[in-house]
Structure formats: C-alpha cells, structure tokens
Automatic annotation (TrEMBL):
Alphabetically ordered keywords of this record: ATP-binding, Isoprene biosynthesis, Kinase, Nucleotide-binding, Transferase
Active site: K11, D141
Name this polypeptide is given: 4-diphosphocytidyl-2-C-methyl-D-erythritol kinase
Known EC number: 2.7.1.148
Signal peptide as annotated in the record: none
Pfam families documented for this protein: GHMP_kinases_C, GHMP_kinases_N
Organism expressing this protein natively: Microcystis flos-aquae FACHB-1344
Domain of life, per lineage: Bacteria
Residue span(s) of domain GHMP kinase N-terminal: 67-149
Keyword Ribonucleoprotein: no
Family annotation (HAMAP family): IspE (MF_00061)
C-alpha cells in the first residue's frame, strides 16, 4: 500500500448571500466559491492498525477525533467497513499553511483531502461526484473542496454548479493573528438581525439561485472581465461581522483604498481578501498596507487564483 501527500487549497467566497432558513437548522445559501493556491499539506501513511492517528502541530487545530480530517477518515471506515478491516488504518499528518478559523475552509479542505487520499490508498475508485456526496456529510464547504475551481454553491453549500474557471488573477489574503470569528456566531447574528428579509419556499430559493447564475458577477466571470468581477463581489456576513470586529472593517477599508480589483471579507471572516490583476500589483498593495497598518500580528499572503482542487503530489 502506498503513502500519499496531497495539497489541500483554501477557498474564498466571491459571493455569499443568505437567502433563507432551512428545516435542518442551516441556512439556504447562494455562493460563488473560488479556490486559491494557498495549500495545507496532508500526508497519509497506512499504519497497519485498526485506527486512524492524527498529527498536526498547529496550536489551534484539534489533535483528536474532532479534527475534520479524522472525521473524514472515520466516515470512510464506516462506509467501507470490510475494506477498512482488510487494509487497516492510516496516519494523517497535517502541515498547516492556511490560517485557522479564518473563513478560508481550512478544516473542510483537509477533510476533502483525506477522502481523496483514502480512496486512493484503499483503491476504491470512487468518482468525484461520489466523493462530493460523502464530503457533504462532513460540512457545508467540504463538497466544494474536493474538486474546487469556480463554483456556484447552493443549498447549504453542497449543491455544486461549476462555472467557467477564473484564472490569471491573484489574491491578497490578510488576517490579524489574534482574531478569529466563529462561523455559527456569524450566521446566528445574521438570522437575528435579518430574518425578516428571508425567502421561505424552495421555489423562491430556486428562483434566487437562477438570478445569481445569470447575474452580474457570474456574467463578469464568464466574460473574463476582472474589473467587473471585483465590482460585483458580495458577502452578506459582512453586515454582522464588520460592525463587531472594527479591526477587520478598518483592514477592509485600507486594502480597498489601496487599489486592486475588489476587496471583501471571505466567508464568516475575519480574513479580508483583495483581488489583483497580477502578482506585482498584489505585492505593491501589501507593501503600502504594511506601512499604514503597523500591527505585529497582521499577516498577509499572496496567492494565485486556481481551478485545481485537491491535488496528489
Ligand atoms: P469555513 O470557511 O469552512 O467556515 P474556517 O476557515 O472559518 O472554515 P477552519 O480553519 O476550518 O475555519 O476552522 C474552524 C474550526 O475547526 C477551528 O476552530 C478548528 O479548531 C476546527 N478544526 C477541526 N479540524 C480542523 C482542521 N483539520 N484544520 C483546521 N481547523 C480544524
């Protein structure tokens, strides 16, 4: 049996709209998700035991069975008990480069990598749609992370509708090390504040999805118009996170004023991203932002937009 090392990339939300409540307690969402080439490295080694072991040295990442990567492995063992009994368990090592609890789907992409890697080690031959269906059981963003690219994600995020890949652009990611936003808190706050604006029926959800599918942002992506893409990015969660986290609001303002195609918070934050037409533009903006925002724990990353999801190295 082989060992595998996989690259698990982060995502940003180019669009995030909360359209309603769902009976299962989640929200009905319309999102445009985009893979970014800032990757964690996941190594999977068969261990000959009847258990999965997890190794990750990041202080904010759980080392036990609550880790999403471990949960992904447990799901595979439950789905394929005889194969697990034959092939045995796996040691999962995670080298973290994606900031944690940052709105970049770090845990979800690790889980997706484990599903893809175990499929290879156990020689299951699962298709991408089969892996995405399994992934949906682990979290709302995990299905998208399996294949990545530029995708309209609806339902609670697990219904995937890939669109023309967005390539050639770069992104700045900026985050204060000491800040993290709880995703459940952000959604609950949004519900408390804006529930009266929600749509209520599956027909309405579907109609809203169609509007976004044919709307300004998706059209700008299809026509490869970077300036229009930057103009039409949108995130409903900014309405609750920015007033509460004034440092994030200030960071967004400063980056936006420095140029780039568009600046926004990703997911539930607190990471702010700026889309840029080139690596050079991104580097100039980061240099200028560092001069304005003097904070030792403010970190920047520059990465290309990519259409590649989980990758086997
Ligand atoms: P999303 O954008 O999908 O909402 P996020 O980027 O905001 O996710 P994560 O980095 O996935 O957040 O971390 C959210 C929580 O999940 C953290 O509190 C972390 O402790 C926990 N967690 C569990 N497994 C992992 C993992 N493999 N990597 C990172 N965090 C993990």
């Amino acid at each position: 049996m082989h060992s595998y090392t996989l690259l698990a990339p982060a995502k940003i939300n180019l669009y995030l709209e909360i359209v309603g409540d769902r009976p299962d307690g989640f929200h009905e969402l319309v999102m445009v998700m985009q893979t970014v080439a800032l990757c964690d490295r996941i190594t999977l080694r068969p261990n000959g035991l009847q258990e999965f072991r997890l190794f990750c040295h990041h202080p904010l990442v759980p080392q036990d069975s609550s880790n999403l990567a471990h949960r992904a492995a447990t799901l595979m063992a439950r789905e394929f008990p005889r194969i697990f009994a034959n092939y045995g368990g796996i040691d999962i090592s995670i080298d973290k480069y994606i900031p944690v609890a940052a709105g970049l789907a770090g845990g979800s992409t690790n889980a997706a990598a484990v599903l893809v890697g175990i499929d290879l080690i156990w020689e299951l031959g699962l298709t991408r749609p089969e892996l995405e269906t399994l992934a949906a059981r682990l979290g709302s963003d995990t299905s998208f992370c399996v294949t990545g690219g530029t995708v309209i994600c609806t339902g609670r995020g697990e219904i995937l509708d890939p669109i023309a890949p967005l390539t050639g652009l770069w992104v700045i990611l900026a985050k204060y090390d000491h800040l993290s936003v709880s995703t459940p808190w952000a959604y609950q706050s949004y519900r408390q504040k804006f529930q009266d604006t929600y749509l209520s029926s599956p027909e309405e959800f579907h109609h809203r999805r169609q509007q976004v599918s044919s709307g300004a942002l998706v059209q700008a992506i299809a026509q490869k118009k970077p300036a229009a893409i930057g103009k039409f990015i949108h995130n409903d969660l900014e309405k609750v996170v920015l007033p509460e986290f004034t440092l994030v609001a200030e960071l967004r303002q400063v980056l936006g004023d420095l140029g780039g195609l568009g600046t926004m918070m990703s997911g539930s934050g607190p990471t702010v991203f700026t889309l840029c037409s080139s690596q050079e533009v991104a580097e100039t903006i980061v240099k200028e932002a560092r001069e304005i925002l003097v904070a030792p724990d403010l970190q920047f990353w520059i990465a290309p937009i990519t259409d590649t999801g989980i990758q086997v190295t």
